[in-house]
Design brief:
Elements (H helix, E strand, L loop, with lengths): L1 H25 L4 H6 L2 E2 L5 E2 L7 E5 L5 H15 L5 E7 L5 H11 L4 E5 L3 H6 L3 E2 L1 E5 L5 E5 L5 E3 L2 E2 L7 H10 L6 E2 L5 E2 L4
Parallel strand pairs: 3-4, 4-5, 8-11
Antiparallel strand pairs: 1-2, 3-7, 6-12, 7-8, 9-10
Length: 194
């Protein structure tokens, strides 16, 4: 009978839990790999994403109207979640550090802004759009990626009322111990080769 119980538990694990574990492995971020992806901070020095604690990475463009609209909300979200490191990443070479500093000052951005000149970080995450967010827990698992909320339903179309606050809800889930993965399709300006 004991052997049957052991067999039953093992079979349950492999049929029910193993697919979840495998799926979670596909969403892991390598801290070692992130340290090799050199980004430039607003002082012109090399920097990188630190996975010492939970991290939000948001890909931004200083010209993207949606990014500008979301910046005050991201600042507010950072203020209410001090235990999370927020990083704003600007992919490509289109914007100077002076332009990015101007954006930071204009919107009171309270998190690190980094440039991803050769788009290695963008490619590593598969980011295609600005704004696009990734929530990564301290174990290195991406628990959420995509839209900040459902305000923009498609390019050029916005809702009058936001009904889903995807990033905020994912942060709450993570702080409540829920380790589920969710993904939405981002809407915004495409990250191009410039």
């Amino acid at each position: 009978m004991k052997l049957f119980n052991v067999f039953f538990r093992l079979s349950f694990f492999f049929t029910a839990l193993a697919p979840l574990w495998i799926r979670a492995q596909e969403n892991l971020v390598s801290a070692k790999k992130l340290k090799t992806i050199k980004l430039i901070n607003l002082n012109g020095r090399e920097s990188c994403i630190n996975l010492g604690k939970t991290v939000v990475i948001v890909f931004l463009s200083p010209e993207c109207p949606l990014c500008k609209n979301y910046l005050p909300g991201l600042v507010k979200l950072q203020n209410s979640n001090k235990s999370i490191n927020f990083y704003g990443v600007i992919p490509g070479t289109s914007y100077s550090l002076k332009e990015i500093n101007k954006l930071k000052n204009e919107y009171g951005i309270n998190f690190d802004l980094l440039t991803d000149r050769d788009k290695r970080l963008s490619k590593y995450f598969g980011a295609t759009t600005t704004p696009e967010v990734f929530l990564i827990n301290k174990m290195g698992a991406i628990t959420y990626s995509g839209l900040i909320d459902n305000w923009s339903s498609s390019l050029g179309q916005k809702r009058l009322v936001i009904t889903e606050k995807y990033l905020e809800e994912a942060i709450k889930d993570l702080s409540n111990g829920k380790q589920i993965f969710k993904k939405t399709i981002p809407v915004g300006c495409l990250i191009n080769d410039i």
